[in-house]
Amino acid sequence: MSSQSPSSTVLAQLLGGLPELVMYDLDGTLVDSVPGIALAVDRALEELGASPAGEALVRTWVGGGQRLLVQQAINFAGMAPAQLDSAIKAFRKHYAHTADHNLALFPGVAETLAFFADHGVSQVVVTNKPIEFVPAMLEGLGIAHYFADQLGGECLATRKPDPLMLNTMLQRFSVRPDNAVMVGDSSNDLLAANAAEVPCLAVSYGYARGDDLSQYNPVWLGDNLAQLLAPN
After folding, report:
1. pLDDT tens digit string along 80-137?
2. Secretion signal: which residues (predicted)?
3. Are 197 and 209 contacting, i.e. CB atoms less than 8 angstroms apart?
4. What angle do CA 192, 193, 199 make, to 5 degrees?
5. Could you list the active site residues?
6. Dihedrals φ, ψ of 123, to 5°?
7. Widest pairwise Cα distance in the chain
């Protein structure tokens, strides 16, 4: 159990107490998944007769969802727009084998998950990543036990920035929006939170693709979630 008093933390001061429900984005918020994504992109490009892009370039493409990612990859390769669907299929095939490649938690994530668990706060994942890849990633990182539920990009009719995922979790856990919080790294996360009237904590280290997250009015914007657990 954490010895830190929850009422004396930066987080509690920001929110007026601990939330009942924390909803997390996955890629770019909890985990750095770019190495595996980049490897799958490069293998897909090579399968389709193009040169690999490399991890550094692919990192600049991540954050807008799978379709946009692969669209940028085929644009880079000079491939025809009509090849998008086959490129997505190839990417998903390869990503099934590379999703855990050099996968790592961002600094402060492990401490934050443990803190909320210690204080009885429900935690869930709401990600635009296809759900088929999510459970194994969480298990591989040893954090699956922290999450009471998961929603992926193909679970509901719409994805973030639509608020449906967040509203669904609020309903499942019978929590009011002002008693929950969203944690994310991109405009998709913050726009969804704003639409659901849920406070949002934004991280600056993720895959925002150069977007200024402060324009979406997060209640906090920082570079390490563990900063929220410090004494106020």
Report:
1. 999 999 999 999 999 999 999 999 999 999 999 999 999 999 999 999 999 999 999 9
2. none
3. no
4. 170
5. 25
6. -130, 135
7. 57
Q: What angle in degrees, to the nearest 10, is found between the helix axes of 34-47 and 66-77?
A: 50
Question: Cβ distance 107 to 226 under 8 Å?
Answer: yes
The full set of domains in the chain, from first to last, is: 6-32+103-229 (3.40.50.1000), 34-98 (1.10.150.240)
Cα 113 vs. chain centroid, distance in angstroms?
A: 14
Closest CA to 221 of 212, 230, 229: 212
pLDDT tens for residues 185-215?
999 999 999 999 999 999 999 999 889 999 9
